[in-house]
Structures are given as structure tokens and as C-alpha cells.
Design a protein that fits this description.
Low-confidence stretches: none
Radius of gyration: 20 Å
Structural class: mainly alpha
Mean pLDDT: 82
Number of strands: 0
Order of helices and strands: HHHHHHHHHHHHHHHHH
Distance between the termini: 36 Å
Strand content: under 5%
Largest sheet: none
Number of helices: 17
Shape: globular
Length: 416
């Protein structure tokens, strides 16, 4: 009964991640590939603007994702997924227009629209939670979605690398990958509208105001059973996003890779993410608890993040393979712990709140990273990655303090 919807959700996340994978090698280095600033504009100021641009998407998502999560609890997953994917389609088109016209404000508008409507993953995960019976099933199914992430980061950057490579065609530019991402978002929208059955059977009316978002965030961080988990989620994502957003800048600065070269390296990383989340994570889900897995895997993740700064180009491939294997345990196991801690009718809301915590780290990280690029501890492009490693290490220390929850939580009750 649940197999077909799970397959459709897998394809949905896959198409979504292909679209993201197509563009992700290019956004962090867009100011190095195209001119958006007047002559004489300092590099330090450009770094700060880059941080603001990278922060625009998650800042908008910070406000939008919990609202979409509650709307999905109210009206069902299918309608909200459709709305979210239309926002992605529109955002990719506007970003392409921004590059074509050298318009900085269009780049920002694109990321804000895509961010506010970009609750694709949290709503899809709520659908998966609807179809999963217990914590182990959730870890396995969330791990399957993690495999879609990995496949997306194989297929997406490969497409982006090809479509931006002028050696293949003189018609290929940095604009072409964003147009392709828009096509994938449109195809995904059609899939949801015509193929995905509604997975939510028990709907509840919830407040969807932005004010409610802050109330629920406060509840999440003050509620005894969830406080430690959310702190760990915040710190780990803060560290990982610093790496994820500024790794492209590091590759451009240290190894002088082009946009297509960076895209092809992301194909390699995606291959190992597929192995991690498609096989290794699902295998371990049957052997031990999500808490124990996080305690074992997060310290090596922090060490490997730091090691990536110091190794040469050949050894970097080994470090990235190991990092993908270890870091792949993080999100599905955090998601499983949070999902299993809440009542069935609060799945969309708790995963939406989790997305808010993630989004908070995602807009703080690039803002901080933009300034960190101006700090030369060693090389300026290495500083954000060093900070990311230290934050994942701090998250591991917090994970050591997580205790088993005593009872499931209903957020509708907890927030009163």
C-alpha cells in the first residue's frame, strides 16, 4: 500500500535535488564568473554581499518552511508540495534572468522566492513519516530519501557541468544550468499533481501565521525532551553549511577549478552520498539506535572536515569519500529522533520546525562566512571551512548529552 507513494516521493526528492545539484556549484562563485559590481568595488565588500546572497534563500525558508509544514497538516501534503515546486520553477527562471541582465536585485529576488516556497523537502519528509510505522522504518525511509539527495548530486552537477561547458557548445553559459533546473522543477510539479496520492489521513487545523513560527521555535528550544536535540541539529548544520556553501570558493581559490570543474567534483561527492544514505545508513538503522549512530559518526565527520583543508588534490578525493560516508548519517538520524518524539498528527509541524532550525543555521552560516572570508588565519578561503569543522565537533559534544525521550509530544498542546 505504501510502496508506490514512497517511490513517487523518492523520485520527487530526486528531481528536486537534481535541480539544486545543477545550480549549487555556480551560486557561491557567481561573482567570480560574472561582473555585477562597479569598478573599484573592494573584494572584502563583494565577500559580504556574497554572504548576503547565500543567506537570502535560507532566511526566506526560515519563515516559509514551518508555515508550509502547518499548511500541509491542514490541507494535505500534495497541494503544498505543488506550491513549493512552482516557487522553485519561478526562482530558477528569475536567477537566469539576473545573470543575463547582470542584475543583482534579481538574484536576490530569485533566492527569496525559491526560499519562502522551498519547503519541498520538509513536506516530502512529512509524507514519508505518514507512511512509516516506527523509528527504524523512518530511518530506513529517510535514508532512502538521503540516497535521492546523493543521486541528485551525481546527476545534477553532471548536467550543470555539461551545460556550462563552452568547450561542448558555444551556446552553453552559466545561464543554461538555471534554465535546465527550471525544467526539472516543472516536471516535478507535474509528477506531484498527477501521480502522488495524498498521504495524510488525519488532518488538524493549525495556526499558519509567522508569529506562530516563533512561538513554536521557542517551544522547541525550551521543551525538555527536544532542547538538546535541536541545539545539536543547529550546531551540526551551522558547521556543515559553512563547508557546503564555501567549499566551492575554497576549490576556486586553492585549486583554481572552473564552474564546470567544481560541478564534476560534486558528481564524485554525490556518488559516495548515494552509497552512504542508500546502503550504509539503511543497514545500520536495523542494528542500533539513531542516538548511538550519531555519537559514533559525528566526531569523524568533524575531523574529516578539518582534514579537507590541508590535503592535496589527490588526497582530497579520499577525504571527501570518507566525509560523505560519515556525514550521511547526520540528517536521517536527527530526523528520525525528532519524528519519533512527536505525536502522529504533529509530524508535519515538528519536521517544519526542524527545517526552521536548519534554515536558521543556513542563513547564519553564509552571513558569517562572508565575513570569515575576510579573515586570514591561514588563507582567507580556508577560514569558513575551519569554523565548520569546529562547529560539528561542538554538535558531537551536545549529542553525547541526548537522552531517550519518555513520551511523545503534541505540539498543539505544548505551544499553549
Amino acid at each position: 500500500m505504501t510502496k508506490k507513494p514512497l517511490i513517487i516521493l523518492f523520485v520527487t526528492v530526486l528531481l528536486d535535488m537534481i535541480g539544486l545539484g545543477i545550480i549549487i556549484p555556480f551560486v557561491p562563485i557567481i561573482f567570480k564568473l560574472h561582473s555585477f559590481f562597479p569598478a573599484g568595488f573592494s573584494a572584502d565588500h563583494i565577500n559580504v554581499v556574497l554572504g548576503l546572497l547565500l543567506a537570502a534563500y535560507p532566511l526566506a525558508q526560515f519563515f516559509g518552511a514551518p508555515v508550509l509544514g502547518r499548511l500541509s497538516d491542514n490541507h494535505g501534503r500534495k497541494k503544498i508540495l505543488s506550491l513549493s515546486l512552482f516557487g522553485s520553477f519561478l526562482g530558477y527562471l528569475i536567477f537566469a534572468a539576473g545573470i543575463y541582465s547582470s542584475s543583482l536585485w534579481l538574484l536576490f529576488l530569485s533566492r527569496i522566492i525559491d526560499g519562502f516556497t522551498g519547503g519541498n523537502i520538509s513536506v516530502a519528509m512529512a509524507s514519508i513519516a505518514d507512511l512509516s510505522k516506527d523509528e527504524k522504518a523512518k530511518v530506513r525511509n529517510f535514508g532512502m530519501i538521503g540516497a535521492a539527495f546523493g543521486l541528485g548530486f551525481i546527476i545534477g552537477p553532471a548536467i550543470g557541468g555539461i551545460l556550462s561547458d563552452t568547450r561542448i557548445s558555444p551556446y552553453f553559459t552559466t545561464i543554461t544550468p538555471f534554465l535546465a533546473a527550471a525544467v526539472f522543477a516543472l516536471a516535478n510539479l507535474a509528477l506531484i499533481r498527477f501521480k502522488l496520492p495524498e498521504t495524510l489521513t488525519n488532518r488538524k487545523k493549525r495556526d499558519v501565521s509567522i508569529k506562530g513560527t516563533f512561538i513554536n521555535l521557542k517551544t522547541a528550544f525550551t521543551y525538555k525532551h527536544l532542547k538538546t536535540i535541536f541545539i545539536a541539529v543547529f550546531l551540526s548544520n551551522l558547521g556543515w553549511v559553512l563547508f557546503e556553501y564555501f567549499f566551492q570558493v575554497f576549490l576556486y581559490g586553492k585549486f583554481h577549478l572552473t564552474g564546470s570543474g567544481i560541478a564534476y567534483l560534486f558528481v564524485y561527492i554525490g556518488f559516495w552520498i548515494v552509497i552512504s544514505q542508500g546502503y550504509v545508513v539503511r543497514k545500520f538503522a536495523n542494528k542500533t539506535s539513531a542516538r548511538k549512530i550519531l555519537k559514533i559518526t559525528m566526531l569523524p565527520s568533524a575531523i574529516l572536515l578539518m582534514a579537507s583543508i590541508f590535503v592535496g588534490k589527490t588526497d582530497l578525493y579520499v577525504v571527501l569519500a570518507l566525509l560523505a560516508l560519515f556525514i550521511g548519517f547526520m540528517q536521517p538520524n536527527f530526523s528520525a529522533i525528532l519524528s519519533e518524539s512527536s505525536e502522529e498528527d504533529s509530524q508535519g509541524e515538528i519536521l517544519g520546525i526542524r527545517q526552521s532550525v536548519v534554515s536558521a543555521s543556513q542563513f547564519i552560516a553564509p552571513l558569517a562566512g562572508g565575513f570569515l572570508l575576510n579573515v586570514e588565519i591561514m588563507k582567507s578561503y580556508e577560514t569558513p571551512l575551519m569554523a565548520g569543522s569546529l562547529l560539528v565537533f561542538l554538535s558531537w559534544m551536545v549529542v553525547l548529552m541526548i537522552r531517550p525521550f519518555e513520551k511523545k509530544i503534541s505540539f498543539s498542546k505544548a505551544s499553549k
